[in-house]
Amino acid sequence: MKTAKHIKALWTMMVLLCSLSSLMAQENGYQVTGRVFASETGQAMAGVRITSPDVQAAAMTDAEGRYEIILPSLEVLLVAEAPDYTKQVVPLKGRREVDFSMTEVFGKGFYDAQWNAASSEVLVSNLSHDAISFPDNLAHLLSGQVRSQKSSGAPGASAVMFVRGLNSLHLSAQPLYVVDGVLWQMGEDSHSIVDGFYNNPLHLIDPADIERVRLVKDASALWGSKASGGVIYIDTKRGRDMATRIEARFGLGLQMPFDAIPMMDAEAYRLYATDVMKGMKADQVDKLQFTDDDPTKFYYHDTHNQTQWLNEVNKPSLMQNYGISVSGGDEIALYRFSLGYAKHAGNIVGSAFDRLNVRFNSDIHLTKKLDLAADIAYSQTSTQAIFDGLDVVRSPYYMALTKSPLYAPYQRNGQGMVTNRLNDADELGVGNPLVLLGDNVPSLDKYRFNMNIAPTYRFSQRLSMNALFGFTWDKANEGLFIPDAGVADSRLCNALGEVYAIAQNEVRDMMARRSVLSADAHFDWQALADWRHHLDLSAGGRFYALNYGYTAGQGFNTGSDYMTALSNTNSNLRFLTGFDGADREAAWYMNADYAYLQRYFIAWNAS
Question: Which of 71, 107, 545, 549 is the most buried (most CB within 10 A)?
C-alpha cells in the first residue's frame, strides 16, 4: 500500500511539474528555429531578417543560414526578408522548425508595407524586366484572375482587361487602375483615327519601374460604381536604402515572321478564277489581262507571277530594350531615378512601338514626424499602327491575304527590268498592300507628364495623417494618309446606302488633351496591433477634377498624293468633330480592416 501511495504521489508531482513547465514555456514564448537557403544555388544565406507581424521579436541568420526566434504563439506568421529577394511569409501552424527558400528579385527591399492577403486580393511582384509592354506582362502574371483581350498581335496594340467579364454594353467593365495612389483613367471615351484601336495608358509604364501589382476584386464601397470591375493597384519602385546602386539593362531580340494560313499559289488561283468566270460573257473575260498568256503583250510580266504577298509584308523584326536606374540617398532623403527606352518593330513592315520614359521618386524626412514623398515622371510613346481588320482598302495584312499571286508588286521599265516603283491597284480592284507600309502607316503619338506629392504626418506610432496631391497631363497626336496610287478607290455612301462620291485618297488627323487634378487626405489609426488581433481604421476624403477635349478631322481627295494636309481635301468631303468637357468628383470614405491571427479577416468600407 505504501508503495502504491508513493507511486501515486510521484505521478502527481510529475504532472504538476509538466504543467508548470508548460505554463513557463507559454510565458517565456516558443522557440522556433530553421535555416534559410537561396533557391537558385541552394547555399545558406546569412543576414536574412526573420520577424513576425505585430510581434516584438526579430532574428538574423548566421553564416550557416540558421536562426532562432522566440514567439508568443505557434499560430503566428513568420516573415523572412533580404535585399533583392522576395519577401517570404509562412504560417507556423504549430511547427517549431521552418526553413525558407529565397528567390532573387531585383528591386525589392527591406521594410515594405505589410499587406493582409484577404481572399479577394491577389498580389504579384515578380514582373519581368525584359518585357517591353506592361499590359502583356500584367496579363501573364494575373492569368486566371484577369482576362486580357488584344486587338491584334502587333506591338503596342490596344488591350482591354476584365476581372468580372464583359457584363455591360454601355458601361465600362474594365478594372480601375491606381498608380502610386493616383487614379489613371483608361480613356474609354478617347477616340482614335485607326478603326478598332483604343487607348491603353498602361503602355506608358516601363515594366522595369513596377515593384508590385495588387488586384482587388471588391472595391466598389471605396471607389464607387466605377470600381465595379475591380481595382488594380500599381506601385512603382522607390529608394530602399542609403547605399548607391546603379543598375543597367540592355536587351536585343529578333522576332521571326509569324505563321499564317496557306494561300493559293498562281496555278491554284488560275483554276479557281476559271471556275468563277464560267458564268461571265466572253468579252468580259477577254478584258481580264491575267487570262491572256501571250508573252509578247506589255502587261504579261505584270499578270503572270508567283508573288507570295504575305512574305512581302511579313518580315523579321528587331526588339530593343535599354534602361538605367540609380537609387540611394542619406538619412534625410532616399531617391530612385530611372531612364528607359524600348522599341519593338512589328512583323508587318512599318509597324512599330517605341517608348521613352523618365521617372524620379523621392522620400524625404522633413522632421521626426513629417515625411514627404515627391514623384515626377514623363513618358511618351509612338505607335505605327496598321489597320488590321477586314478592310480591303486600308489593311495591308487583309489585302495580302486576298490579293491574287498573279500580280507583281513592282513596275517594270521599257527593257522589262523590275524597278522600285510600286504597281497600282490591279484590274480586280484590289490595291497593292506594299503601298500601305513604311511612311504610309498611321502614326499615333502619346505623351504623359505626372507629378505626385504625398506628405505624411505621424501624431504617434499608431495615428497618422496622409495626403496625396497629383497632377497628370496627357496629349495625343494622330495622323494618317491613304494615297491614291496603289490603293483602290472606295465609294462613300450616305445613311441610305446611296453613293454620293468616290474617295481617291484619304486624310485623318486627331489631337486630344487631358488634364487631371486629384487630392486625397485621410487619417489612419492602428487601433489594435498584436499577434492575435489587428485592427486598422481609416477615414478621409478625395477630390477629382478632369478636363478633356479633342479635335478630329477626316477628309478625302486632296487632288495629289503630294498634298497630305487635311486642309487640302475637298471641302464637300471634309468632316470635323470635337469635344470639350469637364468632370468633377468628391467623396468621403471610411475603412475598417480586422484580422484575427492573420487568418480570419473582416473588412468594412463605406463612401
Answer: 107
CB-CB contact of 423 with 409 (8 Å): yes
CA distance linking residue 555 with residue 568, whole number of Å: 9
What pTM did the predictor assign? 0.81
Name the residue among 527, 525, 526, 523 with its Cα closest to residue 541.
523
Q: Name the helix (H) or strand (E) containing 283.
A: helix 282-286
Specify the length of the chain in residues.
Answer: 607
CA–CA gap between residue 287 and residue 305 (Å, rounded): 18
Of 41-45, 295-299, 595-599, least confident by mean pLDDT is: 595-599
Give the CA distances from residue 367 to residues 110, 372, 463, 465, in Å, rounded to whole numbers and listed in that order: 22, 10, 16, 14
Helices (H) and strands (E) in the chain, counts: 8, 29
Which has the higher per-residue pLDDT, 476 or 105? 476
> What are the start-end ranges of the E strands in 408-505?
410-412, 418-422, 443-458, 463-482, 490-493, 499-503
Q: Report d(CA 140, CA 389) in Å as an integer.
A: 25
| Phi, psi for residue 117 in degrees, rounded to 5 | -80, 80
Determine contact, residues 177/186, Cβ cutoff 8 Å: yes
* Per-residue pLDDT reduced to its tens digit, 364-381: 999 999 999 999 999 999
Which domains are seen in the chain, by residue range? Answer: 2-102 (2.60.40.1120)
Q: Looking at residues 427-442, what average pLDDT do you find?
A: 91
Integer Cα distance of 155 and 429 in angstroms? 30
* pLDDT given at position 201: 83
d(Cα 446, Cα 239) in Å, to the nearest integer?
28
As a whole number of angstroms, the longest Cα–Cα distance in the chain is 132
Please state the φ and ψ torsions of residue 224, each to the nearest 5 degrees.
Answer: 85, -165
In the chain, % of residues over pLDDT 70: 87
Residue 459 in this model has a pLDDT that exceeds 90: yes
Mean per-residue pLDDT of the chain: 85
Q: Of 86 and 130, which is predicted with more confidence?
A: 86
**Which cell is 44 given?**
545558406
